[in-house]
Amino acid sequence: MFPEYDVIVVGAGHAGCEAAAAAANLGSKVLLVTMNMQTIAQMSCNPAMGGIAKGQIVREVDAMGGYSGIVSDKSMIQFRMLNKSKGPAMWSPRSQNDRMLFAATWREMLENTPNVDFYQDMVRSIIIKDNRACGVLTGLGHEIKAKAVVVTSGTFLNGVIHIGEKRFGGGRVAEKAATGITEQLVELGFESDRLKTGTPPRVDGRSLDYSRMEEQKGDDEIVGFSFKDVQKPLEQRSCWVTYTNQVVHDILKTGFDRSPMYTGRIEGVGPRYCPSIEDKINRFAERDRHQLFIEPEGWNTVEIYVNGFSTSLPEDVQYKAMQTVPGFENVRMFRPGYAIEYDYFPPTQLTHALETKLIANLFFAGQINGTTGYEEAACQGLMAGINAHQKVRELEPVILKRSDAYIGVLIDDLISKGTEEPYRMFTSRAEFRTLLRQDNADLRLTEMSYRLGLAGQDRMEKVIEKRNGAEKIRGILKDLSLDPAEADAFLQERNSAPLPHKQKSLQVLLRPNISLPDMIAHLPTIQNALTGFSKESIEQAEIQIKYDVYIEKEKEIVKRMSQLEDLLIPENFDYERVAALSNEALQKFKRVRPRTLGQASRISGVNPSDVQILMVYMGR
């Protein structure tokens, strides 16, 4: 019934979809196994993509030839570039999406990807021979053979849903949990644990009074995520902002004695940076209100996502509390919020290729690794799909360094430090964030992806055009002088000092409150000189000019740090022989088995002296 596949991907969430697309586009024959063909790429929680650091990840996935950026652009109902008032390293794209259109677009793109087959069934276990994954066994009893398996199980492994005192099995509301894989892997020697996440109530938008809320419109200019020319929406839908109050908090507290979180029925740790509403009023008792974002679920639906009101309290308490939120006085609830508890496998059990250390050719991606967020899942899926293909073809794994991408930071954090709570990406986690901007993800990653065979010729040509354009613009501005007679009126309007004499355009651009598009719009000399250059090249040139000192400084740090990254530790290195190591370092090294001295230095609990001892022992 089934041929032998190169790669089987278990689960069709954000990680699974990217894994299947990447492996297939590289030439592997892929089977995507999902428990429900109608929920491929489901946005299980909020109908949005991107945000702080997450937007950078989506752009990186797109630059690598992944699909998430294209799907997000095609299904967006609103776009905003966050942190625009700060430096470019902090700019983060975010879209509000049509939930149903997002999933439909993903499925359509996968169905149009050669080499991807689909099968609806539950995977009960991984077929393992000679310590190597070589297929899956399904709930219907089918043995399907493959050379590699990528597990992207999301919240489905032994998932349990909690609403107040009610508790029932499920991977999402109205969808059954997946069983068998955890038990099999634990028996093989894997370590597993429990995490939890939550989701807010969905409500009827027709029952809300928007006049009592603050409107939040999209940006006038829709930049989007994809570096390809994807058609953006001509209109946008507004989101809205309202706030809880002390009355809301007091009502919510009446349900605490029936809350699974406070009565101990939930064992898993929840996400620190996306806490439930009961968590917020408990941890931040001094605050008398919390912000709620009222987010439409799509173009053609009245369903609303109440962002900021995640909860697992009883339905009656949720409903009563919501009725006291401004604008929610007559609210009708479509479905209550709930918490979900699920199995994950601490990611220190993986290599940087996202392959498990215990079983060869078995890869994990997404929430099974302890992360939270569509974007974090998507980028892991992309890398797991790439590396599953590479392993099958006996090629070198593709590993992004911390200085290459946020994707590299995320995977290195997981592999080196592990996580005891759901991991979420922030700009502060990246030490080289001036280099890892959303605007230059294509310049950083597309060439490597093109050589790999994933990014297409069209992407590579756009990158070359953008890079060459930015370099030419820098050269022009460096040579081109501005006359005070032309520039002084423009400078005066922007509260900038007049020119004492002719000055190079580049020097003028370095002044505060002066932007290159503004100079092009108001100074004929600049306008004439830069006619024909793309908007992307102009933006890139300006960022490189204004932040040149910081960029060069970070490049120098990367160069110094790479010396440690280049010092490989032998795969079977015997740490017991290094007598001077601290006990904690010895245990951590044996558990994580770092690939390089650089990775060894980032393991929690390892001191610089331990790394120096290791370096000396290795003859460095």
Q: Report the mean per-residue pLDDT as an integer.
A: 94
CATH architecture identity of one domain: Beta Barrel
CATH domain class of one domain: Mainly Beta
Largest sheet: 7 strands, mixed
* CA-based gyration radius: 26 Å
Walk me through this protein's architecture.
It is globular, with a radius of gyration of 26 Å. It contains 21 helices and 22 strands. Helices cover about 35% and strands about 20% of the residues. Strands 1, 2, 6, 7, 8, 9 and 20 form a 7-stranded mixed beta sheet that branches. The protein has a 6-stranded antiparallel beta sheet with strand order 14-15-16-17-13-18, with no helix packed on it. A 4-stranded antiparallel beta sheet has the order 11-10-19-12, with no helix packed on it. With about 625 residues, the protein is an alpha+beta fold. The mean pLDDT is about 95. Strand 16 and strand 17 form a beta hairpin.
Q: How would you summarize this macromolecular structure in one to three sentences?
A:
With 620 residues, the protein is of the alpha+beta class. The protein is built from 21 helices and 22 strands.
List the main descriptive attributes of the protein structure presented here.
single chain; 620 residues; alpha+beta; Elongation Factor Tu (Ef-tu), domain 3; Arc Repressor Mutant, subunit A; DNA polymerase, domain 1; seven-stranded mixed beta sheet; six-stranded antiparallel beta sheet; globular
